Amino acid sequence: MAESPIMNVVPPRSPWRSTHRAVLVCRRAAMVSAAGITIVLAACSGSAGLPGTSVPTSAASSPGTSSTAVPRRIGLVTPTGSDAFGDAVTESIAAQIKAAGADLIRCDPGDDPNLVLDCARRLATEHVDAWIVVRPGDVGAALCDVGPKGVPLIAVAASPLSCQTAGVGADDRQAGLLIGRELGGVPRNSSDCARSTLVIVNDSASASVSTERVAGIRAGFSALCPGAAVRVLDAGTQDRAYDAFRAVFPVLPEGILVAAVNDAAALGVVAATPDGRANQVTVAAIGADQQARCEMTKNPVWLGDAALFPDRYGQVAVPALLKALAGQHIPRNLYIQTTFVTPATLGRYYGTGDCPAK
């Protein structure tokens, strides 16, 4: 029998409660189990300036909830604990919902697509004013059929849904283009290009995303280094990338340029690179999650990453949702600005103090 999703209902703090009491209530949240659903009642509140719907995440004024208005009820379907990127997206969205003073009703389906649909059904019974779904997988029209009706929906890092008000995510082709250009600039001349090999580490398990990223990689790289040979490995996890790159590495010539569609694959490639030939390998990837950033700062093999900034998703998704609730028009597609970061530029965007010592 399939497990039930975890439901969390997070209302804002009542105005007569002190800040200290609110913290205690959050820590001692009442756990109520019914029909396999865990409901957490916590006291939270806040207010925030809200950015517009353009790609940059600078603050601006947007509709929210006043201290006297009935708080909006916003549903959030998101898997937690599955990976660092998804957790950062979820934390960002939850923080922005809290800052807007809205009630957060969160349902965690884990990695089970059937439970994603179960979460959508249960949010429909919660009478939410709007909802957000993060990385729902290939559930397609079924999510629209069973989820809340007639309210705004923001789909995050997902294939387009027929019922969505807007989608928020990375411009995957642009991210691929960035790392393709950086790797294409590594060979110093056309002769070096002819002796180089571009190894693209793909992930067929995320076909739509990977297809766009690979197309960008090819376009960016070929514009600067058109004579190089190209090999594609389908190895989108760290373990698979380690095994695949270790198997192909002995037959590759000098001048190996690796473009990975995600950080997990890049970590596998770096781990599989023999120390004696590390100076012949250059790696770039898409993501720039914490583990990748830490590895980048200590390993000269890693050129850099197209950073996707999962910690900024809430700054785009939640203000857009509130604007839609207020009847304002929002663009159908909203993209998080992507930037290529290197060990030399990481400090402009992230701290590295929590990385293990070199």
From TrEMBL:
Keywords: Signal
Domain of life, source organism: Bacteria
GO cellular component terms attached to this protein's record: cell envelope
A GO molecular function held by the record: carbohydrate binding
Region (Disordered): 52-71
Compartment(s) where it occurs, according to its Swiss-Prot or TrEMBL record: Cell envelope
Pfam families: Peripla_BP_4 (PF13407)
Residue ranges annotated for the Periplasmic binding protein domain, each copy included: 74-328
Family as reported in the entry's similarity comment: Belongs to the bacterial solute-binding protein 2 family.
Protein name: Ribose transport system substrate-binding protein
